[in-house]
Amino acid sequence: MQDYLPRRTKRQQMHRRLRYLYLSAAQWRRQVPVWIAAILIGLVAYVFALGSHLSHDLFFKAYDASPYWSLLITPAGLALAIWIMHRFFPGSAGGGIPQSIAALEPGMEKLREYCFTLRAAFGKVVLTLLGISSGATFGYEGPIVQVGAAIKYSLNRKAAQRHEGAARSFILAGGAAGVAAAFNAPLAGIMFAIEEMGRIFDMRAGSTILLSVIVAGLTTFAINGNYSYFGIVHVAMESKQAWLAVPLCGVLGGVIGGLACRVLLALSQRLPGPLHGWRAKQPILFAAGCGLALAVIGIASHGSTFGTGYFRARDIIEGHGAGLQDYGVLKLISMFISHISAVPGGMFAPSLAVGAGFGLNISQLLPFLPQAMVVLLGMVGFFAGMTRAPMTGFVIVMEMTDSSDMLIPLMATALLAASVSRLLTRRALYEGQVRLFLPQWHAKAGQIDQPPART
Length: 455
Fold this sequence. Notes:
Blueprint: H1 4-65, H2 70-88, H3 97-102, H4 109-115, H5 118-133, H6 143-155, H7 157-162, H8 164-183, H9 186-197, H10 203-224, H11 245-269, H12 275-281, H13 283-300, H14 310-317, H15 327-340, H16 348-365, H17 371-387, H18 390-401, H19 407-424, H20 429-445
Organism: Chromobacterium amazonense
Protein name: Chloride channel protein
Membrane topology: Multi-pass membrane protein
């Protein structure tokens, strides 16, 4: 009996060890698709960013040859994008962020199978780059949210279909990894997931998001190195007078951003007059008309309003904003027109460019302060006012400009702008777009017999 007990204990210990090793190996096998998806998101984000810059350069080569080429290129490009979208990639429609947030709602299995396939992700990349190469005011940072979510969901489809919580975790993690990789801003990706998409944020989603953001960020870092999206800005609030810029940028950014949010939501719901019927009946011709309007504005602004706005915003931050005093207003109008064209594209980078333009205007009211400092506050003020996402706003601007010394002023400006915006508009931008999108989707879902073939 004395010999039997130790042998039995040893067998139990061996059994527990083997069981632990088996469960550990199974857990690692489940993590492999998560890692692979995060690496792919980082690669796609790099390709998306590179393609965006090449598309921008391609358009301006034609524009430099003759500004009037834009009267042909922009309408034709937007019309072609709408035709391709309706013909080949219907699941790629929209900006990407509202669709990703809507997919987190319970009972959205059909939406996930429709909009979060590799086919839809590929179409999103192609159509967004086509819009940018046409000179429209689009960014790739919004679409990369849907692309990242689609990659993460598609490569983990079996687990997502078995567990509702897992499906939402993959969509959250993919969207966060996309933002982090696109901007080289890991904290901004996490903040975006929590603030904009994280209605069901839990510990499981948190660990998946963190792993995805790290792996996607390391992938882009390995390819492109460490960089700041808008360069490095060496500026700080060194005097008491400098704090005057915080309430000014916060209030004005909240007012302008809040009004921009109201206009965007109104345009998303219904266009004024006969434009609504025109877009519904002749979407390709309507997109061409939007392209013509963008080309006229672009020629009148000497080309400054074409494209994402990245290079103009960087010029303004670096103090090369001569002749761009009307840039904020014109870029905002271009963003509205690009949005109503229904061509897939994002508003992250354009909204920051608009904020830089208004920041330049505000800096002229405070000539005794460093222009770069006021421009940064103007960017975060408008972004937070339009999206009502203050945490994402101040983190993303801080990481994109490597301006950690400005953290407290950026934070204060973002919070003030979001509070002012709340007085002007009932719903935040993406929340409002989701509420408008869901009824449209439910009507469309009833007409879909089955989701498109998985790719």
